[in-house]
Amino acid sequence: MSDGRLGPIDDVELDMRALMRALGRALPILVPLFLLFAVGLYVGLSFVTPRYTAETKVLIEKGESSITQTGGDTEESRALLDAEGVASQVQLIDSRDLAMTVVAKLQLDKLPEFYATPVSDFINGLLSKVGLGKPSGDSVREERVLQRFAEKLEVYSVDKTRVINISFSSSDPVLAAKVTNTIAEEYLALQREATRVANADATRWLDSQIGALRARVNTAEAKVETFRAESGLFMGGQNNNVSLPQQRLSDLNTEMARLEAARASADAKAEQVRKALAAGSDFDIPEVLDSSLVQRLREQQVSLRAQVAQLSATLLPAHPRIRELNAQLADLDSQVRQAARQVLSSLEGEVATAKAREVEIAADIDRAKVATAQSNGSEVQLRALEREAVAERELLEGYLRRYREATSRQDGDYLPANARVISRAAVPLEPSFPRRLPITAAATVALLLLSLAFVMVRELMSGRALRRVIVEPPEPAEPGLPVDGRMRWSDGGDVRRMMPAAPSFAQPQVLPPDMQDSLRALVDRIVATRSHRLVVTMAEPPAAGRPLAAVALARQLSRRGNRVLLVDLHADGADGAAMAPESERLTGFSNLLAGEVSFAQAIFRDRSSRAHIIPRGTEPLPEGLAGDARLAEILDALDATYDHILLDVDRDMAEALAPTASTIVLVAEALASDPRTLTAHETFTAATKAEILLLIADTAPEGEAPDPKTEAA
């Protein structure tokens, strides 16, 4: 264009009404075709040979009953019942040998279902007659039968149980049930046969081991007796488990203890008698009172005292009769004391005898200790021989016990299997394949979806489902001015938020002249130059509230699929209020700088886009923040995560951060030719080598409705 203006721009969008109309036109043709296809498929499936499936369930458990079980739970029985053991039984049922047994028993190789000569075999037979075909025979026939048998058989274990499910499919329902039950029966028979063979092998092995083990037991026991006789280690005691020297030493110790107790008792009794004699008191001591002489003297004393008491009533103490009786009482007391002295002499004799006997027994104990010490060395060797003999004896007894159990099982034909059938297969009444109704419905629905998708793709490829949209051209650029964009704003109070109305931008100085001049072009420039760290600031202090240009720019960059983070370092915190979730006090950069919160607690998601924001925070920002090492560390950490980081700062901090920025975005409310705008541009040009972009925000009166064309753009 000669005037430098760009013509109208054509854009396209999806026309849902046209797409629905195309589907409506196709349905009258597709529905009869679907119905015809469904009927044909349903009828065609009726000609397919039905396949019936029969199921048998087998429970894996220990076959031994509580009566015949010889021991507790062994490692073998526990291994049988765990998950690996059940899986092993599944493989056994699905084995080739079991399949061959079932095929031979039911003569399945004679049924056409299992052996039907295919066309390839017929051709191979013709070629074999002229010497060109592959050899064929019974082995090939057997392999084919086993292969088809395996294809029809399915064996699996039920989850979290010890139940194995055996299913077999066949065109004959009776044959399917018969084969399934036969597999279970042959599996149990195979287990019983394995048990019988194991018992027979164990019996033969035990029989051969028992003879040799008996000879070893006899030899070991003979060695024990020979060594005992040579060493004189004969056994004594009640249980014949103590050697004679040890038994003698034990008896001497017992006798010594008895003598010491008797001596101590006699010595104590003698001391009591001695004290009684010294005191001249009554001899109320059991040893004295037990003497027959003392008892008679006591009786006489009692009789005389009775006479004295009787005569004292009529006679005086000096009477001859009274004096005679008192003399007799004194004589009796002397006789009692003499008897007590005799008892004391007897007790002292017992003490002396006990002491002499203790000396003799002590000498005997010393001699017995010497003899016992001499026999201990031989006893060590004897115990070793006895342990060997006992081990051989226990091994022999264990072998004999197991041999008797094995022979009793073999003779009694008791062969339990470690499984039992809990559900036998019944003749199925309904075929498992084909299920005509579900298959027909699924195929019809799938064809319907594919047909609708084909119609939609055809409409989109032809362009009939797309409509053109004409976008009004932007305002012409004013050449010679370092302007990168202009945008309209509406006054929303103290803080004016960016409105998407009537975007009209001048031609960027660094962009080609034929590129559309808009905010989209500004974002394209930032993305093309891969500007990583952008400093957004006002070219001049706003008159009443600042426009949220950084918020608009962050949202536009995020809609391009970029990871964008806006850091609000303004004192008013307007960016956080516009983007972050509604909250009275949001933690943010000041809290992160102070170490009070983590990155995850300071970063918020924009309510209108996928951009992230770090609000200003609840704490005041420190002086000289631009030169703070902590700020550099935080920004370096954020650089590794985000594609674009926008630092929305005031003019002073912007000049301090300019050397480290990739791009400087100046937001101006005045024209690009305004001296204040030019002064700001020159200031930042001198402060940094980064690219400087100018964004002009045109203010609109409060409540002014945007142009409909602008909204559409």
UniProtKB/TrEMBL annotation:
<keyword id="KW-0812">Transmembrane</keyword>
<keyword id="KW-0175">Coiled coil</keyword>
<dbReference type="GO" id="GO:0004713">
    <property type="term" value="F:protein tyrosine kinase activity"/>
</dbReference>
<keyword id="KW-1133">Transmembrane helix</keyword>
<protein>
    <submittedName>
        <fullName>Exopolysaccharide transport protein family</fullName>
    </submittedName>
</protein>
<dbReference type="InterPro" id="IPR027417">
    <property type="entry name" value="P-loop_NTPase"/>
</dbReference>
<keyword id="KW-0472">Membrane</keyword>
<dbReference type="InterPro" id="IPR050445">
    <property type="entry name" value="Bact_polysacc_biosynth/exp"/>
</dbReference>
<feature type="transmembrane region" description="Helical">
    <location>
        <begin position="26"/>
        <end position="48"/>
    </location>
</feature>
<feature type="coiled-coil region">
    <location>
        <begin position="210"/>
        <end position="357"/>
    </location>
</feature>
<dbReference type="GO" id="GO:0005886">
    <property type="term" value="C:plasma membrane"/>
</dbReference>
